[in-house]
Amino acid sequence: MMAMIKSNAYGHGLVVIAKLLSKKYRGVWFGVDSITEAVRLRDEKIKNPILVLGYTLPRRLSEAVKKDIIITISHFEGIRGLVRLKNLPRFHLKFDTGMHRQGFQESDVPKLIRELKRFGLNPDGIYSHFSTASNRAFSEKQIQVFERMVGEVKRAGIPPGILHMNKTEGIINFPQSTYDMVRLGIGLYGYYPAKGVRLKPVMAWKTIVSEVKQVGKGEWVSYDRTERVGRDSKIAILPIGYWHGFDRGLSSKGEVLIRGLRARVLGRVTMDMTMVDVTRISGVGVGDEVVILGRQAPLEARRRRHLPRFGRGPLTGQGKDAVSADDIAKKINTTAYEVLTRINPLIRKISV
């Protein structure tokens, strides 16, 4: 299996996730976006096989050789870049079977075979990517195209190496394209890109209340007087904003959990701070835990783990509600992928 830890492990922390998985599953592969991510893993003593799925600049190919990093070749310029090297990195070929992003197209295969034979190149693997794994008819067409292309390579006497195509949805929907390896992406983190499969998210994202104040009826909140309160209100200020990955689109409609209850964002999300309405949540005080993603643990469990305090009032609703990346995505018309990957990499990650 290849664990997709590209893009900072979908916002979960590249090194944290790699170390957890490599310790538990020694044979797992890692898929990353760039040579930069791959080199960082090697510098952290991660020895598992690493495939760079994105483009690698020619000047960095020597790093791939030195650190035993496998790169992707998806066009003829990539092949020409390889053959200029004295020592070649290992590589996988990427085939475009219908998404029309990276990859050699079916019409390229005859020329590709000639180039591989001309320079004596054998790939360590060949892979493709589903455009829309929830569309069965189109995905099956992609599988057929992939198998035709791989078949041509095999008939030319070139060993294809490891074949892989399935991502999270494909693993469940298309067992016929399991091949030699699967690439587990968003599912690794407890999300599924379509309805019908329920997984448990593995990450909670938290901050604290940094200030609490009373605001009179009719007063305005945030930049440009974004929102006017219709009653005397109690607001909590959170030290988190769009710089941290809490999207500006959540202005006046995002929700967080404080003391187990939902608190709505008031006014515009700013760069480093956000205001929320806690008028109906009793006992909120400075230092209280705020859950941005996930579920708030009951008070007794939190005391045992020495986590941030709750306020002084009753704990109504504690532990019964949760906020997911899908919930946030619906509010800002995007996907859980974007919500997760935009979490600032500088935010501290804690493994529990």
Automatic annotation (TrEMBL):
Keywords tagged on the record: Isomerase, Pyridoxal phosphate
Modified residues (N6-(pyridoxal phosphate)lysine): 6
Biological process (GO), any one: D-alanine biosynthetic process
Alanine racemase C-terminal domain: residues covered: 202-352
GO cellular component, one term: cytosol
Superkingdom assignment: Bacteria
Transmembrane feature ranges: none
Tagged with keyword Lyase: no
CDD domains: PLPDE_III_AR
A Pfam family matched in the record: Ala_racemase_N
Residues binding substrate, per UniProt: 101, 271
Cofactor: pyridoxal 5'-phosphate
GO MF, any single term: pyridoxal phosphate binding
PANTHER family: ALANINE RACEMASE, ALANINE RACEMASE, CATABOLIC-RELATED
UniProt name for this protein: Alanine racemase
